[in-house]
Amino acid sequence: MCGGCVVGAIYCITVLCKMKEKNPWHKAVVIFIAVLGIIAIVALVTTAVLQNKPLQQKFKYGIVLDAGSSHTAVYIYEWPAEKENDTGRVKQKHFCQVKGPGISSYSLSPEQAGHSLRLCIQEAVLNVPRRRHHETPLYLGATAGMRLLRMENQSLCDQVLGSVEKVLQSTPFDYQGARIISGQEEGAFGWVTVNYLSDRLKQGSGTTGALDLGGASTQITFATNQDETGESAENTVTFRLYGNDYFLYTHSFLCYGKDQVLKLALAQQTQAGASTLLDPCFNQGYSTNLSYSSVYSSPCITTQKPLAAGEGFTHRGTGNALQCQEVVRRIFNFSGCTFSHCSFNGVYQPPLQGQFGAFSAYYFVMNFLNLTSDTLENNMEKMARYCSTPWTQIKQQFPNVKEKYLAEYCFSGTYILFLLTHGYNFTSDTWSNIKFIKKISGSDAGWTLGYMLNLTNMIPAEAPDTPPLPHAGYVTLLLFTSLLLFLILLCSLRSLWVRCTSQRQII
Ligand SMILES: Nc1nc2c(ncn2[C@@H]2O[C@H](COP(=O)(O)OP(=O)(O)OP(=O)(O)O)[C@@H](O)[C@H]2O)c(=O)[nH]1
Ligand SMILES: [Ca+2]
After folding, report:
1. 219 is in an annotated binding site
2. Predicted ipTM?
3. Is 271 marked as binding a ligand?
4. Residue 193 Cα, ligand 1 centroid: separation in angstroms?
5. CB under 6 Å to ligand 1: residues?
6. How far is the CA of 56 from the CAs of 80, 128, 198, 258, 348, in angstroms?
7. What is the model's pTM?
8. 3-state secondary structure of 221
9. What positions does the entry give for ATP binding (predicted)?
10. Per residue in 255-270, pLDDT tens?
């Protein structure tokens, strides 16, 4: 089209040149045509840019409640309405931490479980534009705390779920249900979240594994070869996303979250029913009174409270990392593997593949202990130093950190190092493949985003068709060719004008 303009303009100038001698207005007409040419090109480019500019962005929203064993969190996600199927488009807009413990702790007063969510629901109402409320899906997924309560008492579990359901149904949002998600879902959707946020799903190769450490369970998930998944169907999840097939290995270890595993260690060390426990996994000088029932009432503890035991015992730290490792080792069972490879407790695990993102309590603990970017050997040394630091010194050094967290870091850090190395088989060489992360591109790592993307069908099985050029590329190309044609037009005008003038001089 522009080429036509140039040819037309050159033709006009030629004609004008011939008319020049007869027409006294020729100069003004030439300028007029040149100006018209410029206006035409500017109008063409402006129209092309404006026409292809995305319209003012409209956003859609989704809400997921993560009802974990230790607490409930509300995540609000936001994405541009017209781009919901593009990877990396959904972002975390708001996060609200529910005050108090996880919903499974309300088993003796189920009504309170629903009530505890109210403040965060009010925040959600304020954070989603009112006109979008009715079309905003709202999901609640409960994890290991509720899995344990279901094992203990199905009826109390139903009452707690009923209570949260009642509150969620009364919100202005599009309530989609509250349910206990399976360990496989928790692991697999954590993997989807990590890979969606790091934009790896469209590339089809080189995905990142997901390591999630909660309060009551822990998950490991990574992509593996199809033949590796054949050994154990219950550890296999397959996805087809953006035209690529993924064969995931996943396993959720119930009772191996950071709080329940501590109970396993305490039960292991109080078998004799003594009135004092000297625990190497707590700092020297740390001392507190614990009831036997707080340890033995968990469904994770299969042994009975020792017969000789009284009501409670004094839990006293001795701060010794090597001895703590031995305590931790005893809560793992490395015998009885019936597969080609196992992690622990007879659970199948194929050889580790690729990079891993470790989040939730992995991040809280390793970040506090400054173990996120060092070698495995240095981390072991740092851990030993933390464990052997007297409790009074630790408290002085970190006056603003919650005492419960502070007291448990020696145990939790030792457990994490043991789980990753002896449990999952990371070595000194593969240690650097683990990145301890909290957020990716501003959104928290965890199962909730993957869960919502799946339920709203926001990750298509096949890659959507895309225009051959991206918008920016298209506009740049258009501008470039228009400028080029304009320059050609100017040069042609100038050379014609010169030729015209020289002809006149000859005449
Ligand atoms: N040190 C430390 N621990 C934290 C912090 N926030 C939470 N935790 C603890 O880390 C553990 C894991 O927390 P989450 O990942 O929220 O666990 P959850 O989702 O409640 O538990 P699951 O149902 O097993 O997934 C729990 O023991 C929490 O009490 C923190 O800021 N610092
Ligand atoms: Ca969790």
Report:
1. yes
2. 0.99
3. no
4. 18
5. 68-71, 102, 143-145, 214-217, 257-259, 360-361, 364-365, 368, 405
6. 10, 18, 26, 46, 51
7. 0.85
8. strand
9. 215-219
10. 999 999 999 999 999 9
